[in-house]
Write a structure and sequence with these properties.
Elements (H helix, E strand, L loop, with lengths): L14 H9 L6 H5 L6 H15 L11 E4 L5 H4 L1 H5 L4 E5 L5 H14 L5 E5 L6 H14 L4 E5 L7 H10 L4 E3 L6 H9 L5 E2 L6 H6 L1
Amino acid sequence: MKLPPSPAGAAKPSSADIALCEQLPGYLTPEIMATIPEALPAAQFGFATAWQSVGRLPYRARPWPICALLGSGQAALEQWQQPWQRGQTTFKWKVGVLCPEAEQEILKALLAALPQGAKLRLDANGGWDVATATRWLTWLDRHGNGKIEYVEQPLPPDQWQALLSLAQTVTTAIALDESVVNAAQLQRWVDRGWPGLFVIKPRSLWLLQKR
């Protein structure tokens, strides 16, 4: 599970968010949080973050791992070194920018260069079609060298059956991001028996608290 920052759209509360806050009672429960509509992401994010923070008092800082974003294409072959020297061991590389053959050649070199203990996340941003995703994941099963942590959102969210089939077929882990942008979608994928990973937005954390 990866916890990214809240998207920009959830950072600025609207008048509807403020109105909701004025209507709520002076206490908070999971049942009350469940009534916050998906159309108010700022309210969801704020209350979910507060709920998680209060639930963990007294707070103890943790050394959360930080994922270093590498530039697309050949730039990645040099950019991993400085974050590695700072102690970062996990990297993220956007794919689907170049043709698959070109990116796979670069990826071979990158995997060979990364030291033992390094992990790489590939983010397709839902940009592949089923055929491309299948070829890529089959290739990664053969050439990942144990350094591929997961592939993020290989297909668009509306192709959920193909996503589920892929995750059940290949050994390389798949993480859903754009497919789980709110709590309802996350629950839907849990109910489907999703075998892979989730990229969880903070405003959806209350759902995990309930489970």
